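On clarity, I found the account of how folds are encoded harder to follow than it need be. Since the whole study asks how a given chain folds, the encoding of that fold should be made plain. For illustration, here is how one protein appears when written out as sequence plus structure tokens:
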Amino acid sequence: MEKKIIVQRKFIKKIFSLLNIEVKKKDNYLNYTFFSKKKIKLDIVKDIFKFHKKVDQLYITKNYPKETLMNATWKFWLKNYKKKQMDLIKQNKVIEFKNILDIVFSNDFNFNKKQIHSKKGKYISSLHFNNIFHVFESVTNRKIEDLVDNNSWSKYGYLTKKGVVSSRDLLTGLQAHNIVLLINYINHEQKKKNVTFLDLGCGTGATVEKVLYFTNDKEVSMNLILMDFPNRLSLAYAYLKKIFPKKRIFLVSQENQVRSTSKIKGEKILLIPTIFYHQILKNYQINILNNQASFSEMGYKSVRFYLNKFVNKNLDYLIETNFNNKLYSNNLLGVSKHVFSRNFPIPNTHKLLISFAKVGGEKYVTNIYKRI
């Protein structure tokens, strides 16, 4: 009887295939809300508060190039969307900060408790998620489970046997896949045993997280540098320390720390404020520069500044994913405008190697530039 049913199913599938009809089961694992039972260590939160005592959240300083400081758009964003987080740091409420981090969704570190406890099933379009999911598996030849963060952080998304994967995990996983291909090429073809990767505008550090998952070659030693505004760096520090408690991760609050940590051999992760950019140039030779959706959000002068500083004869590759579709509004938080990536002043030391649309986000394009 069972054999007969199997034969019938195969026959039906063949008929559907000839008619170009695809039957999909209802996805009962999407829009799953998961709250991690793992608590963040108090020492991590104390490190964050110590960091902000030395590096102000809004960069109240006149000692550094204005291109590295926070513009009006991002001050508006912090004051309106991250007020709770900023206030807890200002008031030195370490325990309350920790308690919120313990339940916050890692997807965006939203400190609004109402949104943290939003209802299950509300967040992700099945079509949107499945499109990215299928592209991720076909392009990377990896399983979706490869993106699970060992259940360190609460999140919403797709439930797998190993944990929950969000749509943002898929997007950062795709970017990390491209980065790892470049790392492997530099290591194997150019015989470089030490590769330095700079993520300029790192956000929560999710791209570096996926790079660490995908890098299995013990022959290459990596310096992973994350550079951003103080507010984003402190959350990236919490995010990565909770997932990788045994890795050497440094939240840099003073310029001389960049030099001292550069002398440490082996793999290390450094989170460095943008105002210390010149110390990175002094102490590291960057092989790969990554920018994911922040160049187009920072203003043309700042884009030109960073490109002129970091895209030089020593840089092997620049990989950037930014706003580039004129069919969409380029309004940024109602305060300024996105800079189109087609207008980025790429130095003549590098030429475009390949360009492709960002999966699940037709507003954006990914460009990879190679040193010539």
In short: The mean pLDDT is 88. The two ends are 66 Å apart (CA to CA). The first helix runs from residue 2 to 18. The first strand starts at residue 32 and ends at 34.
